[in-house]
């Protein structure tokens, strides 16, 4: 902070400077300077002050220890930065700027966002391509309005499709010249394509003959509020994963176009607010798939026929399933062997959603997700008769506490292994186990010999010892344990009394079996959330 006398001195200098430098012709008859000229002078002063601050920061940062890091360390740290942060890192000091700018491989993942495709955007894109040697591997462009510079941008981006492996475009109109120019140019090495249109806006239809029919390595296509044309061309013939997201209304034609354009399709996701799918569609041959994700509906028309066509080695992911969807889910396998029930933080960090995953003896997997965890309790209650054969249960401690209180757990008579997921986070308003002595006892299971207490974070991130361990009371854990327990496994969990020997305790870290890992429901594919460099 400047002292008062220094602020007054600077203010007096600025007044004198402005009066001295504004030309006489910029004053009116009363001797007052034009607002426009005054603003221009002050803008120039701000620019000079900002440049002086940048020079000062460069000089200061050149003397701090971080500037003395080896080049290899600086490059390694920079490799983890998103595009916007990487651009900001070049302003740390001259040495960082030189090191980072010389490493072209760092700049091949480009993410730019702008309101309108004006000259500044075109210049920024050209500079970004130049910085990576004209060979970007990832390009994510977001813009809201078209201008007369759109054709030029389309031409510039099209020249880089020879090296692009991942392309993401966010647009508002299908008639944008840049959008059309990019999507009709050959893309010989493109592997994933993500196209996004604003939610609730007009649905955009892609141009015919995508990529001029040349995209031999394209394997995944994700469309948000965008649909395929009737004739998409041969560019999608190698696609194995296709997703529709956020459509206002999905029709039979939308699904048929996707299936016709992607003859090698293995995974299909359908997400819409409403579906216009008749109960008895016209001639339709359901494809053989490995996975299907659906928002809400699978209870009529061709979607149900796809589900019934794939009877084994099939993953069905349902978000907000309907009553008919739930009935299909529990009937997918003749015998359900493994069940996963867990809470996941909501996208807005407001509360938790609930997920239920069922795996059977025919390699079928069904995942159901709700944005309200209590819905999982009703779902388990509806399918309890099909769950009596379950041998392995992995469950959040909050859901388990509610199931024990409801008395439904006693029907799981075939249970051999129970994994309870615990966390250090407060899960209000949901109850927690192991926070107080067990008032509601476990049922008397003769077959349940193995209980695992596992950190939820460990299950999400793969059993890494550096994650924070969950500390539980030995006395409280002992009061909760089923009497049939012979082995207690701890994964990312510690007890406050390490001398306990009954039941036998084993610590798990890196040797967990793949099948025991927490399975993410993941009905959808997350769109790029990389921090964009605003243009």
Automatic annotation (TrEMBL):
<feature type="domain" description="F-box">
    <location>
        <begin position="63"/>
        <end position="110"/>
    </location>
</feature>
<dbReference type="InterPro" id="IPR032675">
    <property type="entry name" value="LRR_dom_sf"/>
</dbReference>
<dbReference type="InterPro" id="IPR036047">
    <property type="entry name" value="F-box-like_dom_sf"/>
</dbReference>
<protein>
    <recommendedName>
        <fullName>F-box domain-containing protein</fullName>
    </recommendedName>
</protein>
<dbReference type="Pfam" id="PF12937">
    <property type="entry name" value="F-box-like"/>
</dbReference>
<dbReference type="InterPro" id="IPR001810">
    <property type="entry name" value="F-box_dom"/>
</dbReference>
